[in-house]
Each structure stands twice: as structure tokens, then as C-alpha cells.
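call fold(seq) -> C-alpha cells
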Amino acid sequence: MNNKIIIHGEDLSPYREKALDFCQKVANWILACQRPEHQAVPETGTYYFDVDVDNTPYYAPNWSLAFCIMGLLGMHKETNDEKYRNAALRMARYLKTLQIFDPFHKEDYGAFREYSAQTPWCYTRDALSAAWGMVELYRETNEQEYLDRALLWYDWFQRRGMDEYGWPLWGRQFDPAFAENGAITLHNELHGCFHGGSLNFFYQLAKTTGNDEHAGAFYINIADRFINEIQQEDGFFRTTLASTGKVRPDDPQGGLHRGNDDLGTLGLLGVYRRTGDKKYLAAIEKFLTAAFGKQQEDGSFETYCAANPVILNILFETDGLLENFKLPQGAAGKLLENLFSRQVEEPENPLRHGGIREYNDGHVCARSACYSLIVLLKVFGKGNKYLSAR
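ret:
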């Protein structure tokens, strides 16, 4: 193994051992949160995405299952321990139950529900990530069913997933809401900034099928709207009103996607690789300059820890490509130290031990955990090259 890990001029090699230990704990936390197999239990295979300080657990949405699968498959490659691959495939079996095939939902054939086979809605971006997970499962197993499922979702997206401007919808309702705790607000009057990350799925699907139509005209339209409408002068991406392209004063997601651009810059990197147009690289540089301009002394970027692995990932993916961005001295190391400091050490409590305090308020969340598992294994270990535009 090459002893040097240099990204944008910063040597991160001293962090290798700590990073891989961090990953081991994250992966084992996920296994502890996965629901055991039982033929009479409908949640078999899924896992607890979030565990509060009082041990209250919350089940994973479809997108988190997909990224968790990628992380566990990466851990299997790193350790050659079959328990991680087996856990990923059990999650895949659960994820398949969320896809709609019944004859009473013909117009939504191929869509993915958000949490369970009874959830009456989905967020479009989350369902896209579920389909992305199917692409990666196909690559891992060579089982045609996974790719066919991804293509069925793609067909649904083209029919039902975009608005009149060619931007992905916030979400879709499939059935009436439950009487209690079932209503959901789908802001389809908005262009969600998180949809820049949608570009990754189309990029990977086209690579896998060899069919350029899977990243066709709508793909470039999303990319161009992302840099011309969603990206602001300060370099960050913000949700806008679909009718005007103007930023909505209040963000329905409370600023969740700022430093964590929800893999939008990674999506732009894929568009650059397909087109060679450097305007997409310029947008990435603009974002990274803005993000590191906001980095705190403790290495964090914002309250949400998910920004750390997401930003590290785009640094890794763009190494040697960006002409104008200069990584501040020691910034990536500070990012890592802050990320490592968020890991929970509670050996007596397996539902929390190894998880990540994403909001730094005590409860652990798999958003940061799964992104970190994927990215750190890619940077420091032998993990599969997930969340990539290479």
C-alpha cells in the first residue's frame, strides 16, 4: 500500500489508522441497528437510521438504506468479512419491498416508497438514491434484477418525476395519508437545491448500461439550472421558487444542504467528465472556496456533521483537476479531526456505540455515518469507489 495519501497538496497519511478504526466502529454500529431476519417481521433487514439519547430509534428511509448498502459493501472489500456483505444484501431485500409493482398503482409502477411498503409517499431525490443503490448492487452481484429495478424507476422518473421546467419534483403522493402522523408536505412549488445530487444516479446508470440516453437532455438541463439558478453568488446552493428562480426566504429544510451539498458538486463533476465543459468545474471551485471560507477553527463547517465527509469526498474526487481552488493549509486534517470527535463511545450501548452525533446534540444519525464509511474507506482503505464520478 502506498504510504502517502495526498489530497490537494495536504498529506493525510497520518490519519489512516484512525480513519479505518472509525469505519470499523461505524460498520459495527450499523450491524447492531439492523433488524434481525424473521419471516413474520415486516421490518426484517432494515435498520435504525437514528437513535436518540434515550435510545428511541427511528427506521431508515429508502435513501439511507441505499448508502448504507454501499458502505457495508465497502467494508466487506476492506475486511473480507462476509458479515458485512450479508448485511448489505439483507438490506437490499428490504429495499426491494419498497418498489411499487401492484396493478392498482399503474401510473407509479417502479416508484419507491419512502420508509415501508405502506408509506403513502416518497421524496423524489430519496427514491432516486434507492435506484442508485440498485445500480451498485447490480455491479456487486451481477444479478440482472437489480439493474432492471433501477431502469424501472428511471422510467417512472421520466413519466412522473419532473416538473414543467425539467427539474425533479420534491415528491409524490401515492395513497391517502394515514389519519395520524401520515401527512407530509411536498414542496413541488420549489426547486430543491438537493437535486444537484440527482445527477450522480444518471451518470452511473449511463456508465453501467452504456446507453447515453440515460444521461440525456434532461440531465444537462438539471446541471445547468443547478449552476445558473440554484448556485448563488456566494458559492452555496439554495432552494428556489420554481416559477421565478428566486431564493425562497425560508428554507423548508432549515439549511440542511449547505456545506453538505447533498453530493451536488459530485454530480457536476460527472457532467464535466461527460461534456468536458469547464463551467462545471468552475462551479465546484466556487462552492469549495465558499465552504472552506466558512470552516470553523474546530474543523466543522456547520451544525450538521454530514458536510465533513461530503466535502472530503469532492476534494478526493477533484484532486489534480481544479485550477483556481487552493485548499487552506491543514484544512482537511481539521475536517477529519472534527469528524472523528463526533463518534460516540458507549460500549455498553450497541445502538449508539460507534454512531455519529450528526447534530452534536447527542442523538446519532446514519446520514453522516454512511457517507463517512463510504468516503473514508475510499480515501484510506480498499473500499469500493462509491460516491464517485470516475
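The beta strands are 6-7, 10-11, 48-51, 57-59, 121-123, 171-173, 190-191, 240-241, 364-365.
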